[in-house]
Amino acid sequence: MTYKRILIFLLLFSPFFAPAAWAQMTFDADAKALIPLQTALARGVERNLNLKIARLDVPAAQKDVIIAEAAFDPVVDASLYAREKRLLTASVLYKDEYQRTRETGADAGIGKRFPWGMRGRLSAETARSENNSLADALDPHYRTLLLLNITQPLLKDFGTAVNTADIRIADNQVRQAVYGYISRAQEIGHGIEAAYLNLANAQAVLDLRIQSRELARELMEGNQKKLEQGIISVTEVNEAKTALMGRKEAVISARQQAEIASNRLKDLLEIDADDPLYDETLVTAPIPDTHSDYPSQVEALAQALKRRPDLKRLRISLENQDIRLKFLDNQKLPRLDLVTTLGLNGLSGGDRPVRLFGPPKTSGLEGEYEDSVSRMAEAEGYQWSVDLRFSYPIGNRAADARQAKGRMQARQLIYSLSRLEKRIEFQVKNAGVKVMRSLERVGVAKQYERLAQKTLLQEMKRLRQGLSNTFRILDYQDDLISARIRRVAAVIDFNQGLAELYASMGENLDRYDILLEVDSELIAAFR
Question: Any residues with CB less than 8 A from the CB of 229 and at least 6 apart, and which?
Answer without folding.
Answer: none
